[in-house]
């Protein structure tokens, strides 16, 4: 059974940075395709970034140029999301997802506020 655990969320001022991590267990094949999604209060869950097993990445329009998704080459079960130049509208719960499966993490809160 695949389990995903996010960490790294918190409170940050506008313009600041955070790095989220998603540690996976129970995944049979590596590298694995992963996605970061977020959901703000009263809004639908939206895709933030995805990384596929061939290394290809894609991003939501609102985060292009500010966020970077990557895979830990040493610990291949970990996927990172580096978030730079954070804005108040980035405030949301961020979730990790194993693409093509029903596996989701429990989410980590990111709050951008002065």
Offer a concise description of the structure.
Helix content is 0%, strand content 47%. By secondary structure, the chain is mostly beta strands. A hairpin with a 6-residue loop joins β7 and β8 (78-83).
Task: Spell out the key features of this protein.
globular; 6-stranded mixed beta sheet
- State the share of residues found in helices, binned by percent: under 10%
Largest sheet: 6 strands, mixed
Tally of alpha and pi helices = 0
User: Looking at the structure, what is the overall shape?
Assistant: globular
- Give the C-alpha Rg: 13 Å
Task: Write out the strand line-up for the largest beta sheet, numbering strands in chain order.
Answer: 2-10-9-4-5-6
Could you give the distance between the termini?
A: 40 Å
- Uncertain spans: none
Strand portion, in percent?
Answer: over 45%
Mean pLDDT across the residues is 93
Class from helix and strand fractions: mainly beta
What's the β-strand tally?
10
Order of helices and strands: EEEEEEEEEE
Commentary on this structure:
With 114 residues, the chain is an all-beta fold. It is built from no helices and ten strands. The protein has a six-stranded mixed β-sheet, with no helix packed on it. Strand 7 (67-71) and strand 8 (78-83) form a beta hairpin. The termini are far apart.
Q: What topology does this entry show?
A:
Layout: E1 3-7, E2 10-12, E3 18-25, E4 34-39, E5 46-51, E6 57-59, E7 67-71, E8 78-83, E9 92-98, E10 108-112
Parallel strand pairs: 2-10
Antiparallel strand pairs: 1-3, 3-8, 4-5, 4-9, 5-6, 7-8, 9-10
